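Researcher: Checking consistency across runs. Here is TRAP-type C4-dicarboxylate transport system, periplasmic component again:
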Amino acid sequence: MTKTTIRLAAASALALTAAGASADVNLRLSSWVPAQHALQTTGFEPWLASIEEASGGTITSTIFPAQQLGSALDHYDMARDGIADITYVNPGYQPGRFPVIALGETPFHVADAAEGSAAFDRWYREYAAQEMPDIHFCMAFLHDPGTLHTTTEVLLPSDLEGMTIRPGNATMGRMLNLLGAASVQVPAPEAREVIARGAAEGLTFPWDSVWLFGIDSETKFHLDMDLYATTFVLAMNQATYDGMTPEEQAVMDEHCTSEWAGRLAAGWAEQEASGRDKALADDTHVVHEPTADEMAAWREATAPLLDEWRTEVNDAGYDADAIYQRFTDEMSAADALVQQ
């Protein structure tokens, strides 16, 4: 064998070795909340740091907040199409596309996101592959229960008639329409502008996000009740996951769990709950705790939404009754279900 042949053989062996090893991975996580949001500072950042540590540094990450890579409405498709490797998805931004997970949006069901998110993820994992086949499902979680924040006082469902409200998800949009209000659907980062220019007279939102997004200057009236929650998913591009080494995939699997869903949501839930205290402490804001009769009116007025959910889920080929029973069982076990 000549020296030239030896050199070529050695180069070929090195090339084969390199081809068989995965290059280090830098995950692009796309979010639509600002960088100072508690979900990023207490959720995404510690989660990604844990992934990097567990991988021995072969998996690093870059967060793109505030819709830098695309609209909040498009984040599921952005994960599917590889525009980002991981995306923060609000399934309720696409009405009718993900009927099963929408159960988490139904009024008067979620009482606690910190404890409830792990239970919610355990429940939804059974259906994620069928309902979201375009992506690699990582985890599902909830925000702390939200309510109505308006520019004029709203005490009863009938007070919404004729108003225009920005809903937090598709179920809230249907609720508003059911109660005689119009809905204007825009992502959370655009909500303040819509209200400030008079195109909406309020919104459904978790408590502290009203302050974080600067909406406290517009909405001075708040209903003190756990009206609803919004569901979220961390979706991963399937090709990104498939391109990892088995060791790297194992790290991701260890970080895409119900336990991590609870950890991701906990800090955010605590921060959101603090917004109620801000409203109570501010003399320019009015926080109304509904009476027993008023609560009964809200429950009665919104009850048809659960029936609509059952119909939509059954029509999609699922067993709505079985799915609902599993949901209530999981959430009750976590003490995160509103008493029915």
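Researcher: Does this match what you'd expect to see?
Model: One thing to look at in this run: The CA atoms of residues 28 and 62 lie 5 Å apart.
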